Amino acid sequence: MLQPISILDVCSCINVALNSSKFSNKIIDLVGPNEISFEKLIKQSIPDNVKTKKITLEYAYKQALNDINFEYGVEDLNILVGNYTGNHKKLKNLTNLVFKKIKSLNT
Q1: Which residues, at least 6 apart from 64, have a Cβ–Cβ distance to it below 8 Å?
Q2: How many C-beta atoms surround the C-beta of residue 4 within 10 A?
């Protein structure tokens, strides 16, 4: 699962963090309010006339290790399989921002 966040929200969070002592000595996940699978994100992000090819994770890792031009690196794949999600409520409470929901992400 992923939690995409608007670039405008990221910029707003950075601005708040630079101007507030609430962020001192904290590690905060910059995550949006919606959770979505990588597969669903890809399906919703490309036009219907664009074809995709589903590949196995094993193949992706082999390509990442052996092909410098492969679309994903090993670290990218580790993030995708790690199912990392963050605490959006904590981010929202610290920043007091109203986050934009990315409209095409219907979970």
Answers
A1: 70, 72, 73, 74, 76, 77
A2: 18
Each residue of 48-68: pLDDT tens digit?
A: 898 888 889 899 999 999 999
- Which of 82, 91, 76 is closest to 31 using CA atoms? 91
Query: 81 CB contacts (<8 Å, ≥6 apart)?
Result: 57
Q: What is the pLDDT of residues 5-41, one digit of tens each?
A: 999 999 999 999 999 888 888 888 899 998 888 888 8
For residues 35, 1, 107 and 14, what is the CA-based torsion angle, rounded to 10 degrees? 30
Does residue 2 sit in helix, strand or coil?
A: strand
CA distance 80 to 38: 7
Query: What is the spatial distance between Cα 46 and Cα 25, in angstroms, rounded to a whole number?
Result: 39
Tell me the two tokens of residue 10: 């990221």
